[in-house]
UniProtKB/TrEMBL annotation:
Domain of life: Bacteria
GO MF, any single term: uroporphyrinogen decarboxylase activity
Name the UniProt record assigns to this protein: Uroporphyrinogen decarboxylase (URO-D) domain-containing protein
SUPFAM superfamilies, alphabetized: UROD/MetE-like
Gene3D superfamilies: 3.20.20.210
InterPro entries assigned: Methanogen_methyltrans, UROD/MetE-like_sf, Uroporphyrinogen_deCOase
Amino acid sequence: MTSRERVLAAMNHREPDRVPIDLSGHRSSGISAIVYPKLRQLLGLPPKPLRVYDPVQQLAIMDEDVLDRFGVDTLELGRGFALQDSDWTDWVLPDGTKCQIPAWVKPERQGSQWVIRSKSGRVIAILPEGGLYFEQVYYPFLETDNLDAIPEALEESLWCAVDSPPGPLAKGPNGNRMLSEGARKLRASTERAIIGLFGGSLFELGQFLYRNDRFFMLLAESPEQAHAFLDKVVELHLADLEDFLEAVGNSIDVILFGDDLGMQTGPLISLEMYRQFFKPRHEMMWKRAKELAEAKVMLHCCGGIRELIPDLIEAGLDAINPVQITARGMEAKGLKADFGDQLTLWGGGCDTQDILANSTPDQVSKHVKEQVRILSPGGGFVFQQVHNILANVPPENIVAMCDAVNSP
């Protein structure tokens, strides 16, 4: 099978020729830019320019030779863009490693920390001394909201204002043409399955604008206002979805939405609240995505969400990621038994909270083989570690993890 055939077979609940692997196919399956050069060195690969395509999470672009070495079957749509040296500018990682970041992201040194400003000049994020990620520090709707100004508010929110490739040009007057041309060229250049990052968050977007605590209170105390806000958000998402899939719908295999609904101990909201505020709107967006393109719908959703999964399936979800196996209710065996024939489990292949960072390579290998044994029968499984590989992970463990996926 080609990589694309392999991924789609698994998502159609047929066993492929081997377990498909996702590593850096989206912004929650990537690798810390701090550890990436160490991985290349361990693999005996020549040094290459280190490019950080996601400055917020400090994630590196994985080069083609590493993708080939590990048999990676996925590619992010953004890899078709920012291909010129002029698209990048020099920067330095928190550990002093020299790198490049997208030229449109302009961090400023402010005392002992870095800051990112919005177009209006407001500081919206900081990277404190000793930190590894930029942190959101401004919430546009914290004091008062204006539902007619949501697009403007998004430009003042870290997670929406700091673009990874293809970057801000995709939002310009010729954005759709640029997206379409870049996506077509990327698809023609690879047999890997292409993941288009759309986002389309509802629950998280409320937290980005109101702040977590304020948005929880809005849902609980002012449901009419919460519905009004979410209606506006869905209206914007649907318009963006039309444009996005008109441009790239024929070039992607998976469209990725995002909405973190869980924490370590279970869902962040009740099932009743999910059904009241979010399920109908998820269903509306996911249904429209499938009408506009043949791509599979995947949701990135961290944490323990076992209670919500039947409703997510009913809403039209094809795949869930990252399958946080250490959260309550997310044990691989139970998820596979209960949902393995209805939902692709895209992740859960290796625990990153403890095992990947703190175990020996042999222990990592044994753990991965057991997860694959549980999750792979009958298809419906794409291997990915649980979220991004962090800066403290030994590169030997990364090699052990990837090599164990399809080993005897």
